[in-house]
Amino acid sequence: MSQPSELEKKNEISICVLTVSDTRNKETDKSGGTIIQTAEGAGHHIADYRICTDEPTEISRNVEEWLRNEAVEAIIITGGSGIGFRDVTIETVTPYFTKTIDGFGELFRFLSYTEDVGSKALLSRATAGTIDEKALFALPGSSKAVKLAMEKLILPELHHIVHELTKHRKG
């Protein structure tokens, strides 16, 4: 694989990936792998990738560490976003939001509904928001849902989102 050009390096976004699961490991984590593969395929840099259990303290510990890292521009979480008792990702990450990106969840559920999920899409609590100058996306654990979110929503808008969050620094 060739090295990225200087232009590609300037356009790459530094992303951290977190899979929230009580059962997955790096060998069985299809959804985390899908995020990494599609993001790298779009020319972005994966700064870190981790798996943690469905525990608020574990999720918070990882998110807070990445929030302190100035190089990180986006955090993408998969898993723990359903309605089950152990699904605590949404409740854990939304208090960090400076602003919510309401349209993300709305469009994700609409696209899920129209692409074979049907009325089950209403169970999705996928969400996104900003935390100061970083974007955070919380996706379902399904690799099909992750692929849909990455290809149709996140990757097409990620540069624009990061630009909007950081343009005040550029004068």
TrEMBL record:
CDD domains cross-referenced by the UniProt entry: MogA_MoaB
UniProt GO BP: Mo-molybdopterin cofactor biosynthetic process
Pathway: Cofactor biosynthesis; molybdopterin biosynthesis
Keyword line: Molybdenum cofactor biosynthesis
UniProt domain MoaB/Mog: residue ranges: 16-161
InterPro entries (alphabetical): MoaB, MoaB/Mog-like_dom_sf, MoaB/Mog_dom
GO cellular component, one term: cytosol
Coiled coil: none
Cross-referenced Pfam families: MoCF_biosynth
PANTHER family: MOLYBDENUM COFACTOR BIOSYNTHESIS PROTEIN B (PTHR43232:SF2)
Functional summary from the UniProt entry: May be involved in the biosynthesis of molybdopterin.
Protein family: Belongs to the MoaB/Mog family.
Name assigned to this protein: Molybdenum cofactor biosynthesis protein B
